[in-house]
């Protein structure tokens, strides 16, 4: 099965390849370099579908898209779908520093957070329209650290301490993150769907 990965985020591409390569060696992943649609959905699932539909229509291939982000309990789930641009731009250091500043007065028991990942799978029909659509989701529970640490991963990993660890996601070996993360959990649900399309 050849699938196109509808993301421009190179970190996601790497994690996808490691997770998918181990679980489904028969899959060939091609990068997407077509137009980026406007992500104006109100949920992770809607935005993932918007990205996957655009890539499926542009390439005629089965398309996968990932919409993900960090949801902080005491902020009512924010940044959520706005994670990539929380401080206004795509600079992940500025984004995580703003989030740390917003939580600066909040003591440890109230710093709960989770990552969410929605993976949309869209297969075009013979006419090039979306013939098949499914969304698989996963969450990774944890809490926000009080300072950034670690150099692996990307985005908010340096300030997220997953449940069951006392170091940040950016301090975990990539194999550990890729076995436990929201993206790994979403793939656990996505792989049987992909296997049916193969
Ligand atoms: P594409 O839309 O091209 O896939 P993007 O980075 O804009 O790339 P999103 O809109 O889904 O993707 O935003 C996801 C943001 O959430 C991402 O930029 C990170 O800031 C954060 N994020 C998602 N998964 C993460 C992870 O595994 N570790 C750390 N931060 C993550």
TrEMBL record:
It comes from the Bacteria. One of its GO terms (biological process) is nucleotide metabolic process. Mg(2+) binds at residue 67. Substrate binds at residues 7-12, 68, 154-157, 177, 182-183. It catalyses: ITP + H2O = IMP + diphosphate + H(+); dITP + H2O = dIMP + diphosphate + H(+); XTP + H2O = XMP + diphosphate + H(+). The keyword Cell wall biogenesis/degradation does not apply. Binds 1 Mg(2+) ion per subunit. It is an enzyme of class 3 (hydrolase). One of its GO terms (molecular function) is ribonucleoside triphosphate phosphatase activity. One of its GO terms (cellular component) is cytosol. CDD domains: HAM1 (cd00515). Keywords: Hydrolase, Magnesium, Metal-binding, Nucleotide metabolism, Nucleotide-binding. The keyword Magnesium applies. PANTHER family: INOSINE TRIPHOSPHATE PYROPHOSPHATASE (PTHR11067:SF9), INOSINE TRIPHOSPHATE PYROPHOSPHATASE/HAM1 PROTEIN (PTHR11067). NCBIfam families: RdgB/HAM1 family non-canonical purine NTP pyrophosphatase (TIGR00042). Pyrophosphatase that catalyzes the hydrolysis of nucleoside triphosphates to their monophosphate derivatives, with a high preference for the non-canonical purine nucleotides XTP (xanthosine triphosphate), dITP (deoxyinosine triphosphate) and ITP. Seems to function as a house-cleaning enzyme that removes non-canonical purine nucleotides from the nucleotide pool, thus preventing their incorporation into DNA/RNA and avoiding chromosomal lesions. Belongs to the HAM1 NTPase family. Homodimer. This is dITP/XTP pyrophosphatase.
